Amino acid sequence: MMPRMRRALLVILVVSACGKTNSNSPDAAPDSPDPYQDAAADAPALPAFRNPVTLPDDQLALQALQILGANVQGAAQECNSCHGMTRQHLRYWRALSDTSMSNCLTDLSVSSEQSARTMLDCMRSIPTNPASDYQVQKLGVFATAAKLPWFGYTFWRAYGDSGAAKLAEFQSMVAMPRGTVPELSQGQFDIVAEWFARGLPQLDTTLPADPAPDTCTPGVSADVAAHVTAMHTTGWRAVNRDNLMAMFDCGTATDPRQCLADKPFGSVQAYGTGWDVTGRGRLRVLKDVTYQSSYWTRSSPDGRFVAHGVANVPGSYVIDLQRDATIPISTQYDPAFFPDNSGFVFQGGTRNVCAESVLTSNPASITMTEAGCAKISNIGLYQHVGRGLNNGDFFAIDSQFVSDDGGHTATLQDPDASFDSHGYVDFTPMIFDGTKYVQHTHAQVAQPFEGDSSLSPSALLEMTRVSDPNNAQIGYVLHKVIATQVGSGYTIQTPEIARYCLSGGKPGFSYDERWAAYHHYVTGADAQELGFTGPNDPAFAAYLTQGAANIYLLELATGVTKRVTNMRPGQYALFPHFRSDGWIYADIRDTVAGHEYIVATDAGLILEQ
């Protein structure tokens, strides 16, 4: 029971548990605030933290939502006066509770006095200060169990005769629900806890859809850290390394930080003074181009090929850094490369999916009619691609999107997020038949008010930008992708496992899936973070007229962000994406110099240490 609970019970922080307590039930919390006050000599029996419930998923979901007072038939009481009982909020609670179970409630058998104190202190705002306040956020759903027997026992185990007073202090700070709403009985808590332990099954089919969100509440579930840990040894960065993928400009180096050593630092160029952020990597210039690229830039996993649309000539370009050649390609925009270096997608041509051999044959140009190319009509614009591990199928996803081609003129804010209640993501699975890619049946998943979907290299994570009622971005949502093969297609589920309250462009995942990189257009709100006194600082004024964009790294398991570039007014660092070994490529559009630069930064390699 315990490992399963750790994976899922994570959430609900203060799940403002709405329900009625049956004081005659043997599972109900005892009336005494300290049922163990007379048991100092003889240890009482350990109460169960929660008892397993065997209801099927649909019945469990309905009963849990009824107990919580959500908008479902038969709800005993209304809890929305305290908490919005929406799908998003329930998933946020799940994230908080997972963190509580992983970080704090690590010994539910309460094996010693020290273990009990460690768990309880973990729930304080400052765990090392035993006088600091307890925080509801440190408990998640377990705040609704604060008056149930397990917590009484744990305080007795930790503090003996002093446990009663300390328990009362704890309950006054974190016990939920508040006010006159009855606390949950043990039986009610068991149902709610079981539902969260299973990962909120049937939530979307039982609870009506959310309205457009007008606030963002950050939360990262334990699922994210578990995924990152697994990908460290099994993800595409590890697989490609073990398969001895030849990375561009690494020579015999085995440490990726020693790659690209012959490429000049941007900071020593007149146009690149001040680009680097101390301690967060250095930018190297891979290519100086005089044409204007169009929409995003992406590169192959080995870093050899860099591709993008071109605004001022017909078609697009693929830059072969190894040959120092620019290859015209009869497409328009949206390049993407499969994580095993087997092929690429490029939209706007006769065909849109090609084997990597089309590039490695050293062509003078590419028509998209080559034998290795195929037309897969279900792949929509602004697609991202991935491949399942262990020789799994290839996937492309697309969704509602907002075009982002900033910096050609002054761009003073991030792209809007005009995603509506019909938001969706399309999954198109493919196989490679030895020559070209062949489509399987595609699947669509509803994701209201989300769009600009990105797929991780393993096709196990998806990240979206989420809209508020005014079509402004209020955050990123991280989804787990659960793909179950049925015949020649898949059924797809995408439960939310994290939400980050940030604003920026469409992100790209690292090949070890620890990081997401994105660009963010400078606004007045960034002035102090960039080192100015505020948006009215005269030295900041040029940013408000010429614009700029910087690259940020988001660590998925912690939600911590780091800015890794320091662009000057009129300079836009755009479309960051990883190559397999951890280097990040990007396009810098310099409206002052009238050039664009393909650059690489080792920021991720420095920050991962």
Whole-number tally of structural domains? 2
CATH class descriptor name of the largest domain:
Mainly Beta
CA(first)-CA(last) distance: 35 Å
Q: Low-confidence spans: pLDDT under 50, at least 5 residues?
A: 1-41
Helical fraction equals: 10-25%
* CA-based shape: globular
**Strands, total number:** 28
Beta strand %: 15-25%
Number of helices: 13
Provide the structure class: alpha+beta
- How would you write the strand order of the largest sheet? 1-21-18-17-16
Largest sheet: 5 strands, antiparallel
Question: Describe it for me?
Answer:
It is a single chain. The protein is of the alpha+beta class and 609 residues long. It folds into two domains: 2-210, no CATH class; 230-607, Methylamine Dehydrogenase, Chain H. It is built from 13 helices and 28 strands. The strands form seven sheets. A five-stranded antiparallel β-sheet has the order 1-21-18-17-16. α1 (2-8) crosses α3 (87-103). The protein is globular, with a radius of gyration of 27 Å.
Topology readout:
Layout: H1 2-8, H2 57-68, H3 87-103, H4 113-122, H5 149-159, H6 163-174, H7 186-197, H8 203-206, E1 219-220, H9 222-234, H10 236-242, E2 283-289, E3 293-299, E4 305-310, E5 316-320, E6 325-329, E7 333-337, E8 343-347, E9 353-355, H11 357-360, E10 373-374, E11 384-387, E12 394-399, E13 424-432, E14 437-439, E15 443-446, E16 450-455, E17 461-467, E18 473-480, E19 482-486, E20 489-493, E21 496-500, E22 508-509, E23 515-521, H12 541-546, E24 549-555, E25 561-563, E26 571-578, E27 584-590, E28 595-601, H13 603-607
Antiparallel strand pairs: 1-21, 2-28, 3-4, 4-5, 5-6, 7-8, 8-9, 9-10, 11-12, 12-13, 13-14, 13-15, 16-17, 17-18, 18-21, 19-20, 22-23, 23-24, 24-25, 26-27, 27-28
Helix pairs in contact: 1-3, 1-7, 2-7, 4-5, 5-6, 9-10
